[in-house]
Design brief:
The protein is α/β, with parallel strands linked by helices. It has one domain: Response regulator (Rossmann fold, 3-Layer(aba) Sandwich). Helix content is 36%, strand content 18%. It has a five-stranded parallel sheet with strand order 2-1-3-4-5, sandwiched between helices. Helix 2 packs parallel to helix 3. The longest helix has 14 residues.
Length: 148
Amino acid sequence: MPFTPPKPLEPPPEDLKGSTVLVVDDERAWRVILETDLHMLGYRVAMAEDAVEALERAETDPPDVAIIDLMLPEPMDGRALFSELRARGMGVPVVFYTAYPVFGEPPNDPDILGYMSKAVDRADLYALLPPAIRKRRGASEGPPPAAR
């Protein structure tokens, strides 16, 4: 199989720089890779190695979007963490990022941006973030002043 160079990483639009991305992964290497990339692109990053830490981080620093490993250690996997965030009133858009190759049914939930394999180019992962942040900000800000 020929080597395919990685795609260039596209920084977010200026108005989205500084947005908070919650990264939840029990593997330190992946946390470091994602944190390094996201900082370089201009995002603020909140890191957690399990669901309990992720819930604490989300309470103190509400994220604009989250990248969550599906296979987190007990007591909560990635899907359970997503459900718990929502139950606590923190409906945040999520990309499930996993080494697990089979995802099952595509999500039928507007807050689940998708399931992405850790084997794919990270540029594809990061490309999902700006539209999700815009959508979340639009939903939380309500109609523009002229429409009120």
